[in-house]
Each structure stands twice: as structure tokens, then as C-alpha cells.
Design a protein that fits this description.
The chain is 49% helix and 14% strand. The structure holds nicotinamide-adenine-dinucleotide. Nicotinamide-adenine-dinucleotide (NAD) binds next to helix 4, strand 7, helix 7 and helix 12. This is 3-hydroxyisobutyrate dehydrogenase.
């Protein structure tokens, strides 16, 4: 397995594609943004003018797009990629999308004899750059076996979550929890600082105490606490608040299907919608800190 097409070279896709190049795969790449394509072409990938062109001769197709509508737009319909590639190819769809949407794409692929896995990721842009992503995979175990070398070039932990769409269900559960941790950390940071604590001291105490969590370990939302966190870079880069709002919406849809009670996820969604209304949707999701900061 040598030739891979990579479609969607954004915050996550670009570093993931770069790791495939480093692992020795031949890569053809496409994104709607030409500068992203040019950047990887400069590093040894073949630039393609469309997803179809990128997929010619590719044994494996990897996609990393924003949301369900982009994924359905790429793969489904008479003009969709699944109608244009031969049976026997392997598609690794790594975007975070609705489980129902993933099932639709699985079904279309199966009808055409194409192996497809829903394989959303966790680990953020830092994990994408370091090749340490976690993949949560839904679909056939045999297809996952074939995909192992490709996943291994981009990630560290590869979980088979279950059948079609199961990767997406695991992902929305995880991101709902992440949002709740982020918001809880942000409000505690703001309360402590408003009461006179040094943010770095407070962050370290909570990190090493029973409130410790992934956000406090790797992604503190208070500017200046962690040099490399998006909060210390003007909330640039990272994982956009609008994508977190999308994932929280998917979590609510998923809860609806099972009649699950998810009050924390519902509140988190409302807080992220508020941020979007304030024009902060393109900033990193840790910008939720600004809802709680005392500006007086
Ligand atoms: P992004 O917006 O930075 O990148 C998406 C890319 O897809 C863009 O470059 C866009 O031009 C391209 N694109 C859209 N439609 C296309 C099409 N039809 N053909 C080709 N290219 C197309 O988003 P991202 O942060 O890279 O996230 C991608 C996915 O990964 C999302 O589903 C997100 O929820 C998920 N995710 C993101 C992170 C993170 O930390 N950023 C972490 C885990 C999962």
C-alpha cells in the first residue's frame, strides 16, 4: 500500500498528511484552499486540482473535512467520489460528523464494494503534528486491519469502537466531556483570579488535585499559564469554537436518538452558541474563558 489521496488540508489535515509523507507514502493532495495544497506540494506531495484527480490511482483515500455536509457533498451523489473510484479501494473518513451521516456514507460505499471506515480523531493539532492522534474507528474489522499502517503513521492509539458510525458516537461522547471540562476549568480559573490568586499557582494546584483534567494538563484556557496553549497565542490555531459548537450539536442529536439525559452537554452547547454570537467562532474553543473573565 503506497499511494494515498488526502482531501482536506486544514488545521488537522495538513499535519496528518505531512506525517504520511514522512512515513514514506506517496501522497496526492487536494483542498479548496490552494495555499494549503501548495504547501504540501513543496514538501513532496502531488498537487491535485480536484478530489477526483487526487484519488486517481490511490489505494487509500483519507478525508479530513469540517462537517457532515462537506463529507456527504464529497462522497455521495452521481458526482460523488464513491461513484468515481473503483471497488476495492479503502476510504478513511476522519472528520467529526453526525453518526447518521457516517452511516449513510458507509452504506453508499458498501453498495459499490468500497471499504470505508469512520475514523474521527482526538488529540488536537498538537497530536496531529506529533503523529500521536487517537483514532476511534467504526466499520468492519477486516477494513481496519488493512488501514492499520496508515493510521499508525498518524496516530498512537487506534480503537475499534464498533460497527458503522460507532467511531462518531465515541467521538461526540468524548467531545461533550471535553467541552464540559473546558468550561468548568475556565469558570474556576476566573473565580480564583477574581479572588486574588495567581493564575499559574491556581492552575498548578488544581492540576495536581482532584479537579485535575486534560484541559489543566495540556490546554489551560488562561493566557500565559501554558506557553504553547492557544490561550497564550491570542486563542489562535487549535480547535475552532464553531467546530466545538458543531460537535455539541451532534452530541444533542445523539442523545435524542437514545433519549439520554445530557444536561451538561446542553448547557455547554448554549455557552458555545453565545460565543459564536460574539463573533468568536473562528478562535480556539478555549476562548470560552472570556465569558467568565472579570473585565472590571
Ligand atoms: P479546518 O476548517 O481547519 O479544515 C477543514 C479543511 O477542509 C479546510 O482546509 C477546507 O478548505 C477543506 N475543505 C472543505 N470542504 C472541502 C472539499 N469539498 N474538498 C476539499 N477540501 C475541503 O478544520 P480542522 O480543525 O482541520 O478539523 C477538521 C475535522 O476534524 C472537523 O470535523 C473537526 O471537528 C475535527 N477535529 C478537529 C480537531 C482540532 O483540534 N482542530 C481535533 C479533532 C477533530
Amino acid at each position: 500500500m503506497k499511494q494515498i489521496a488526502f482531501i482536506g488540508l486544514g488545521h488537522m489535515g495538513l499535519p496528518m498528511a505531512r506525517n504520511l509523507l514522512k512515513a514514506g507514502f506517496q501522497l496526492s493532495v487536494f483542498d479548496l484552499v490552494q495555499s494549503a495544497v501548495d504547501q504540501l506540494a513543496g514538501e513532496g506531495a502531488r498537487a491535485a486540482a480536484s478530489a477526483t484527480e487526487a484519488s486517481e490511482n490511490a489505494e487509500v483515500i483519507v478525508s479530513m473535512l469540517p462537517a457532515s455536509r462537506h463529507v456527504e457533498g464529497l462522497y455521495l451523489g452521481d458526482d460523488g467520489l464513491l461513484s468515481r473510484i473503483p471497488a476495492g479501494r479503502l476510504v478513511l473518513e476522519c472528520s467529526t460528523i453526525a453518526p447518521e451521516s457516517a452511516k449513510k456514507v458507509h452504506q453508499a460505499a458498501r453498495e459499490r464494494g468500497i471499504d470505508l471506515l469512520d475514523a474521527p480523531v482526538s488529540g488536537g493539532t498538537a497530536g496531529a503534528a506529533a503523529g500521536t492522534l487517537t483514532f476511534m474507528v467504526g466499520g468492519d474489522a477486516a477494513a481496519l486491519e488493512k488501514a492499520q499502517p496508515v493510521f499508525a503513521a498518524m496516530g498512537k492509539n487506534i480503537f475499534h469502537a464498533g460497527p458503522d458510525g460507532a467511531g462518531q458516537i465515541a467521538k461526540v461522547c468524548n467531545n461533550q466531556l471535553l467541552a464540559v471540562q473546558m468550561i468548568g476549568t475556565a469558570e474556576s480559573m476566573a473565580m480564583g483570579v477574581a479572588n486574588g490568586l495567581d493564575p499559574k499557582v491556581l492552575a498548578e494546584i488544581m492540576r495536581q488535585s482532584s479537579g485535575g483534567n486534560w484541559v489543566l494538563e495540556r490546554y489551560n484556557p488562561w493566557p500565559g499559564v501554558m506557553e504553547n496553549a492557544p490561550a497564550s497565542k491570542g486563542y489562535g490555531g487549535g480547535f475552532m469554537a464553531e467546530l466545538m459548537a458543531k460537535d455539541l450539536g451532534l452530541a444533542q442529536e445523539t442523545a435524542q436518538v437514545s433519549a439520554s439525559s445530557t444536561p451538561m452537554g446542553a448547557l455547554a452547547l448554549q455557552l458555545y452558541r453565545l460565543l459564536l454570537k460574539q463573533g468568536k467562532g473562528k478562535q480556539d474553543f478555549s476562548v470560552v474563558q472570556q465569558l467568565f473573565r472579570d473585565e472590571r
